[in-house]
Design brief:
Length: about 220
Amino acid sequence: MQQESTPVISFEDADIFGGENVVLYGLNMDIYPGDFAYVIGKVGTGKTSILRTVIAELKPAKGSCKVCGYDINAIKRKEIPALRRRIGVIFQDFQLLSDRNVHDNLAFVLGSTGWNDPLKIDKRISEVLENVGMSTKEHRFPHQLSGGEQQRIAIARAILNEPELILADEPTGNLDEETANSIMELLRGINAKGTAVVMVTHNTSIIDRYPGRVFECKDETCSE
């Protein structure tokens, strides 16, 4: 943790919406480059709402939120794609496009974030697939991959644009313990290179094996 640097996420006395209602009051959270932070708590306590606020799907009801230099309270709609290019998001249910193979899933993301040189796109896809140990799966479709393999592709997708921040929403929730451990090793390896990771999880045994900062959501608050 590099406290002398600027936080990639900074909530200050922020009230967080979940749907129509405030689910968290007075959130204070600073996440720095190189941090690995967990957000834990029961269902409905606001964990995913924090992530949705970070990617500017939601705005704080009050207080402030700054992410990768953007003020979420004041961000313009046209600025949101640029913010999201600096954030990689990993979902529990993978969210791969079922009608495209691995290469085309990743190419779709690059194309939609401003890449237009086919050679550079192919090179970057090869790099990230090698990083996640999936170099031989480029032409497979999602239904031809195991859950763990799909999650590795989802991680490859998240790191395509070399984000400053990765948000992982229950990334091991659908995986067996051995596969979950391999996914955690992968995330810790990415984190070790300086990328901040914020991970929502119910699995406290993972936190025991892979320690990090822990924020717990309960009783309409979330604190370290």
